[in-house]
Each structure stands twice: as C-alpha cells, then as structure tokens.
Amino acid sequence: MPEQPNPGYRVNANEAFAAALEAEFRASLITISSAAIALDAFFASVIHHAPDARRAVSRNRPKTLIETFKHAFEIRGSNQEQLVAMLPKIFELRQRAVHPPEDFTAPLSHPVYGYQLERRLVLFRAENATGASSFANAFIWFCLRKPKPCWNALATWCKQSLDLVPEPASEQ
User: What angle do CA 83, 157, 161 make, to 5 degrees?
Assistant: First the structure.
C-alpha cells in the first residue's frame, strides 16, 4: 500500500504563493533600502573629501546627490542618463519603505504574475531589488575610477578605496 501524505504538511497553493510574495517583499525592501543607504553613504564620503563639490538642489535629496556626483566625477552620456533615471526611483522606494502610506492604496498589476496585488508587493519585488543593488554597486565602482582631477583629496580617497567595491557583474 503506498504511503499516504501527512495531511498536516499540506499547504494550500494560495497560501504558499502569498508566503512567497511576502518573503520576496521583505528581502526586496531590505535590498532596495540598502542600495539607497549605500548611495547616501557614498555621497557623504564624497562631500567629506570634496566639500565644495556639494550641490544642494532645494530639498530634493536625489537631485542633490545627482548634481553633486556630476560635479565630482566624470559622468557623461549613458552613465549620466542611468544616474538620472535610477537614483530617484531607488530613493522613492526607500521613502515608501520608511514611510508607508497610512491609507488604502489601489492594487497594482504585478508585471510577472498578472494579478492585482497590494502595491508594496509589486514595488518591492526581486526585479526592482536586483536593479537597485546592481545600480548602486556599478555606479559606486564607476565613480571610484572617475573622480574629476580638480578634487585632489577625493581622487586620493577614491584610489585608496578601489578594492572596497567589487567589480559589477557583466550583463549577459
């Protein structure tokens, strides 16, 4: 007689899917927040070593970081476009992680599963976490190799810090 599965170990497929989404949410929230913190910490190091490179843009933190990075490093073309596109998105997600909405927000369609889900489960998902983490790593790695020569202390610090940030994985 074949062994019968233990009914105590049965998991409803919907419950398993919900648990997987919740685990993905938590891991993604931590990863995206960590990417924002890494970029903010890098900004603090930049202005420590090149205080005159700081460019305040009203109260908009991402724009301040972008303008400071553009002033301190040789950032042009696609690197600048990527910075302008990604940094505000990462900081917006960090803001949502730190200050979630107090009221009801309409569900969003999940781009992978096609279901209408809680906004947090759509925003904080693996694809966004991977993108934020990869961008932060690649951007900091790039900047450490491209300080503008006019910032001597920054250039020295960058040279000393080259081995601290792993080379980004090449996209295939």
Answer: 75
CA distance 53 to 73: 9
**Maximum Cα interatomic distance, the chain, rounded to a whole number of Å:** 81
Torsion over CA: 89, 92, 97, 103 (sign):
negative
Contact 74, 58 (CB under 8 A): no
pTM, two decimals, is 0.87
Residue with tokens 């992680």: 97
Whether 89 contacts 36, CB under 8 Å: no
- DSSP conformation class of 97: H
pLDDT tens-digit map of 29-75: 999 999 999 999 999 999 999 999 988 777 889 999 999 999 999 99
Spatial CA neighbour of 29 closest among 134, 135, 121, 136: 121
- The torsion of the CA quartet 89, 22, 15, 127, rounded to 10 degrees, works out to 40
> Two tokens at 165?
């940030």
Hey, where are the domains in the chain? 13-164
Q: How many CB atoms lie within 10 A of CB 147?
A: 23
CB 147 within 8 A of CB 158: yes
